[in-house]
Inverse folding.
């Protein structure tokens, strides 16, 4: 097994953000405090939308969530995926989330750090299962996402996203699952 980095905030590029405590100042300081809380909520909604768009192959909306120069680096059990740019990333998602795929990705336990009015970072815990039906395979596991966000024209965007697996299990399926519903079978990229 290859040498793996220690998965802590320092190695994942996360630094301490602005303090999460109410200021002692007047109404303008209170507005800034409230804005930071609203920014944290906006970043949560951005990441939740990301996983919804990935699992439903909603590529048009997915593209709106990224900075045009997004950097992507995913390190799994037997793969490493590096991409640069919104168009390249969205196109690759379209190739992966096809009519022969089923994706189930959940992110939770966010550790969001607001660095400034226009920059933030976060760690997310991912739990996922991915079926590739035409290859009779299933991958399931967990990972830690490390993201960097920029606020551009009042809207938070993903500028950098990476993950490293905590664990990953790859199975060969004996037979195709008996699906009573298969959204990507209708809306995924046709194979």
């Amino acid at each position: 097994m290859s040498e793996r980095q220690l998965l802590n905030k320092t190695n994942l590029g996360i630094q301490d953000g602005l303090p999460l405590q109410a200021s002692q100042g007047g109404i303008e300081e209170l507005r800034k405090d409230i804005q930071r809380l609203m920014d944290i909520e906006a970043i949560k909604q951005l990441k939740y939308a990301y996983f919804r768009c990935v699992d439903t192959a909603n590529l048009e909306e997915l593209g709106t969530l990224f900075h045009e120069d997004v950097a992507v680096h995913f390190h799994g059990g037997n793969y490493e995926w590096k991409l640069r740019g919104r168009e390249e990333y969205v196109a690759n998602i379209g190739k992966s989330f096809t009519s022969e795929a089923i994706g189930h990705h959940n992110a939770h336990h966010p550790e969001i750090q607001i660095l400034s009015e226009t920059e933030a970072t976060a760690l997310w815990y991912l739990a996922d299962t991915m079926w590739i039906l035409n290859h009779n395979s299933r991958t399931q596991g967990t990972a830690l996402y490390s993201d960097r966000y920029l606020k551009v024209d009042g809207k938070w965007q993903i500028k950098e996203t990476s993950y490293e697996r905590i664990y990953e299990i790859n199975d060969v399926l004996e037979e195709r699952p008996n699906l009573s519903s298969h959204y990507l079978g209708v809306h995924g990229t046709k194979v």
Remarks:
- Residues 108 and 125 are 5 Å apart (CA to CA).
- The mean pLDDT is 94.
- The longest helix spans residues 27-55.
- The chain has one domain: 27-187.
